[in-house]
Amino acid sequence: MQAFYALATEDYRQLAGARDWKADLAAHAVDGRVKLLDVACGSGKFPTALVASGLAAQPVLEVDLLDPSAFSIAEARTALAPPFVAAGEHEVLLQEFSGTGYDVAWATHALYALPPGELAAGVTKMVGALRAGGFGVVAQASSRSHYLTFYDAYRASFAPEATPYTDAEGVTAALRDAGAPVEVQVLNYRTGTSDRAVAEGFLQRCAFDDTVTLDQMEGSAALGEYLAGCRGPDGAYEFQHEAHLITWQQP
């Protein structure tokens, strides 16, 4: 995991710099507090990035952590720092969640494993969790981004029966179908490393498969071809990212 976040921390730094989050959060506060739902909270990297970027001490952000993993909820809770404070915990899948009345709900690089057949149900739950006038946020890699193109090549080489990742375009369409008047901001950036151990750990986490070595990835057909295009003359890896920052104001 440490190798993964050596590169993936940039995903959250890019998000933190993409908007005036202080203004967004303040605009949706009620009596100086924001009731916030962190969907598929993972290990809490986005709140950490916002705090590191200088997020204001007010309003207080009361966070409900939602994730099917108790371990992830515990990690995210530990990572929270003012103005974030832990409130509720929901160890469930998004599509099984029934909470409502949130001022803000976000899912940041969190919906990749939501199966295509359950995407509509999941985003409908997220839209329904917001109060009227609430603020919704989804950050997701597009079909052209490293995370999606890598995983498609990984499936072709090693796991043809695996379910494809959900891309930002699919999330946007599902949100619109659920009645969310979304706006989309495209973020393009790069990450890279010349350390093969870091590259291996990062790519294994991208695939959620730590049994395939970097040498095996490079030696495979589809994935090897993709990785060759990410490698410079000096052997260092550089990965191209296109994230869609999808936002909406709940009608």
General description of the model:
There is one protein chain. With about 250 residues, the protein is of the alpha/beta class. It is about 40% helix and about 25% strand. It has ten helices and seven strands. It has a seven-stranded mixed β-sheet with strand order 3-2-1-4-5-7-6, sandwiched between helices.
List the helices and strands and how they pair.
Elements: H1 2-16, H2 21-27, E1 33-39, H3 45-52, E2 60-66, H4 70-79, E3 84-90, E4 102-108, H5 119-129, E5 130-141, H6 146-158, H7 168-177, E6 183-193, H8 196-207, H9 214-219, H10 222-228, E7 237-249
Parallel strand pairs: 1-2, 1-4, 2-3, 4-5
Antiparallel strand pairs: 5-7, 6-7
Helix share bin: 25-40%
Beta percentage is 25-35%
Computed Rg:
18 Å
What multimeric state do the chains show? single chain
**Low-confidence spans:** none
Tally of individual domains: 1
Q: If classified by CATH, what would the architecture be?
A: 3-Layer(aba) Sandwich
What is the number of helices?
A: 10
CATH superfamily: Vaccinia Virus protein VP39
Per CATH, what is the topology?
Rossmann fold
What order do the helices and strands follow? HHEHEHEEHEHHEHHHE
Please state the average pLDDT score: 97
Can you identify the CATH class? Alpha Beta
Name the shape in a single word. globular
Tell me the number of strands. 7
How many angstroms separate the termini? 39 Å
- How is the main sheet built? 7 strands, mixed
Structural classification: alpha/beta
Q: Please state how the strands of the largest beta sheet are arranged side by side.
A: 3-2-1-4-5-7-6
